[in-house]
Amino acid sequence: MTGRNDDRPDFQRMLKDSYLRQFDALLVWKLDRFSRDFYDFANNQKILNNNGVRIVSATEAIPDDPSGILLKMILIGQSVYYSQELAIKINRGLTENALKGKINGGTVTFGYRLTKEQTYEIDEKQAEIVREVFTRYDEGEKMGAIAKDLTMRGINTRYGTGITINTVHKMLKNRRYLGEYRFHEIFHKEGIPRIIPDDLFEHVQRKMEKSQRTPALNKLSKVDYLLTTKLYCGRCGTAMAGESGTGKHGDVHYYYKCGSAKRKTGCTRRAVKKDWIERIVIEHTVKFIMDDKLIDTIADRVLSLLGEENKRIPQLKTRLKEIEKGIENMLNAIQMGILTSSTRERLELLEATKQEVQEKLWKEELKKPTITREQIVSYIKRFRDIDPTDPKACKQLIDIFINRIYLYDDKLLITYHYKNDRSHEISLEDVSNDSGSNLENLSPPTKRRGCNAPPAFCRCSFRTRNLRKLFCHQTHMLSRRATDLHRHLLWQQMQYPPPGIGRRNGVHPAL
To answer: What is the pLDDT of residues 140-153, one digit of tens each?
Structure first.
């Protein structure tokens, strides 16, 4: 709230009370406490005058004669001038700080601390937590599990509260960890010390974006939808998610349905049976694994990837260089005669940090696995004998080899991670002929609106619900009576009384 406008709850309440004539004077310390805007002052003063309320300043002697009007305008003009000039000076100071890379207030980002010059420097203890969060999420761990583990270890935020999923999410989105400094239109690429390298940060952003686009994984369902996050609609390109429906006999059926069709935002694709499409994908993927040349290509690619450097190693090497540069600067200062207790403590801290980072670097270098080509080939070939009824094994097969699946009206397009052309086309007509099924039966039945009467007697074309119910009930009862009458006549011909048919004076109830 500010005196530069009248959008203040208590101020508005005072104006409303003035209409009730509950007071006849408004006492203010200075006129600028009432308003620092010409228009608001004139408008609100007129409201109070009309309601019989006069404004009294406790520190300013304002006469009640016409000269008081002029004095009020001068005082308000000084307040407006002072307010606008102060805003300009503050913005100028903030801009100058930003150009120098100084922090203009606010909560210090986790992983940093402020120096005496109001600049960021890395808090190594917290920075290790930041690197750990990025690395664990990049390796596939969920935000909730990371937050729970950090809270159990007693790690808190700047406010002293535990780490939550929102805390982890904001941390993974914070571009300050790349060294970026931004204040309004001012941007410095390397304005603050970097904690996270570009490749790790961008990889994490892609994973988060993919996770946001992914539909719900049916956590409450006991059925595993193996193609979730892999299957897409060929018409509109929207991801297809699993859903279920109950038949008229109580049987539960499972399908994949286009997200756009489910939300009714343009696509008209019908759902497709879950078991049918999963079986096709698994069978054709296993056929591709039968190719020995393809397995050799995959093995070569895996070996080349294993030969690449660990993502953590470049980070630790960069950090080690920064520490060594800091130690060198401290030694240069000592040689120049700058030797204090703070210098000695800082040098000892840098030496300890260097030893700690060096040990972590050695551990990461030892983590590099030594896998042979034969082990890779053996691992891939074991999928040839996969059990189609094992959902875990099938899910592993799909995740490892398949990139995306596009379902069209007449074909299924599977894109693999390892193929040169990256795609394999399957004709749905050929699949239906091989399996002896009809493509029309691959989708859930169309819901028939109306009543439970036999189709020959049900003509539910009325829009009004009550009339439709009445009409359907009458046609249903007519059909039952016609059937009972027909049975009665047959039993009469056989000269045997029909069971369950009551008589009233020898006349059938249907007549």
So the answer is: 888 988 998 898 88
